[in-house]
């Protein structure tokens, strides 16, 4: 800015000197200049200065105006981003609420539970262990929950109770590697053992004869064999893939849970206790 002002300032000083000179001459020689001539000279001298000053300050004014506009635009962008973030949060909360409502409504209609007493419960956390896939519910022995009780979601089996306090219970998920569930295939009625394989991995079903017809997407249910850990007929898993390797002694079957176990909010505890802990 100092460079912009330097030239107009020096020019103004020159004009002042010239103006004083003209005034002095006019006093000493009144007829030396006519009024029109002086006015014309002054105009010719002032106009360049005015143009120079305007030219010097015009970019500065534009810069100031541009800076103000930019700050206003930034403020508007920040406001819009905050509004978008709030809208996205509200949408996620709405989706979560809809999902929880769907879980609750499906838990109200469990035709395969039959006459088994049901205890609704809310999932309040997961166990802090990488060695066990389990979660904690807000109902315990005070509500009639006992070790061995099957736990279901709206889609079917999710696990069984393995530990109980008076107000909470720990549920071992069917995907845990230590979980074994006796299942029955549709159509053929063959019985196999469904074993968990850990977080994110499909479960496997063993003890099925090679060549047994089984389509992808078929639903397996708990076998309910005498001494088993679960009553019969509970939807347990959906078939993901089936293969029959050459000379294999059993069919290779992979299955997945009927619902996302990581997003469970509500479950039902079936107050059913196995007659023996040795079966599946």
TrEMBL record:
Taxonomic lineage of this organism?
Bacteria, Bacillati, Actinomycetota, Acidimicrobiia, Acidimicrobiales
Q: Which family does it belong to?
A: Belongs to the MreC family.
Tell me the Gene Ontology biological-process terms attached to this UniProt entry: regulation of cell shape
Q: List the GO terms this entry assigns under cellular component, sorted alphabetically.
A: plasma membrane
Protein's name according to its UniProt entry: Cell shape-determining protein MreC
Q: What does this protein do?
A: Involved in formation and maintenance of cell shape.
Instruction: Provide an example Pfam family for this protein.
Output: MreC
Coiled coil (UniProt feature): 70-104
Enumerate the InterPro entries for this protein.
Cell/Rod_1, Cell/Rod_MreC_2, MreC, MreC_beta-barrel_core
Keywords in alphabetical order: Cell shape, Coiled coil
Residue ranges of domain Rod shape-determining protein MreC beta-barrel core in the record: 123-270
């Amino acid at each position: 800015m100092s460079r912009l002002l330097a030239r107009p300032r020096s020019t103004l000083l020159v004009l002042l000197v010239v103006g004083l000179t003209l005034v002095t001459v006019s006093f000493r020689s009144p007829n030396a200049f006519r009024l029109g001539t002086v006015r014309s000279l002054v105009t010719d001298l002032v106009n360049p200065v005015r143009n120079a000053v305007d030219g010097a300050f015009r970019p500065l004014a534009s810069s100031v105006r541009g800076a103000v506009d930019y700050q206003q635009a930034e403020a508007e962008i920040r406001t819009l981003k905050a509004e978008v973030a709030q809208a996205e949060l509200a949408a996620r909360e709405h989706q979560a609420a809809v999902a929880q409502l769907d879980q609750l409504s499906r838990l109200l209609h469990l035709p395969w539970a039959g006459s088994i007493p049901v205890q609704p419960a809310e999932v309040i956390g997961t166990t802090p262990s990488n060695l066990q896939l389990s979660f904690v519910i807000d109902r315990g022995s005070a509500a009639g929950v006992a070790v061995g009780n099957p736990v279901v979601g709206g889609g079917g089996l999710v696990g069984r109770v393995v530990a109980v306090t008076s107000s909470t219970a720990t549920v071992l998920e069917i995907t845990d590697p230590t979980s074994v569930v006796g299942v029955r295939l549709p159509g053929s009625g063959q019985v196999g053992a469904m074993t968990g394989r850990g977080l994110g991995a499909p479960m496997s079903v063993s003890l099925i004869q090679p060549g047994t017809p089984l389509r992808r997407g078929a639903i397996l249910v708990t076998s309910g064999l005498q001494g088993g850990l679960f009553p019969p007929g509970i939807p347990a898993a959906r078939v993901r893939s089936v293969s029959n390797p050459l000379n294999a002694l059993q069919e290779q079957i992979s299955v997945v849970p009927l619902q996302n176990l990581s997003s469970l909010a509500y479950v039902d505890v079936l107050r059913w206790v196995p007659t023996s802990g040795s079966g599946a």
